[in-house]
């Protein structure tokens, strides 16, 4: 996918639109690309649980020392955190945007250096749990925070899986939209 990055583009935020069948593959490709460039990544997941992503990332050859997770699905699905989780903060459920925002803020405070990206997977799964109005408010909050801190971000979404009016609002918060091919 090649997310172009150079020092003058710190704080660049992308909305990546993917085919439904390839969104997990796209997640892995993006994380691999970012970590291979030496960046640390915070993955906010409302789509796949920590354990699933961790296994996928290992299979994808990703250096997990460079990946921190904010998992909003595991506690919701099974009622408890995954045992032995490494570099993972668990949020009670995907609709708890306050806890998600706090988790991002706290994690950003603990990561050394400027080389951080935030990936949110996925916009569509968030819409299952929250209203479109709350989603756009959360997106505005997160994108504003990242831009102020000059931290880059990627927000994954299923192409054609979001109402055009919501998509237009989300596109207004990001610096670029990438439509993935397959």
UniProtKB/TrEMBL annotation:
Quote the InterPro entries the UniProt record gives. DUF7504, P-loop_NTPase
Q: Which domain of life is it from?
A: Archaea
| Protein name per the record | KaiC-like domain-containing protein
Q: Organism source for this protein?
A: Methanogenium marinum
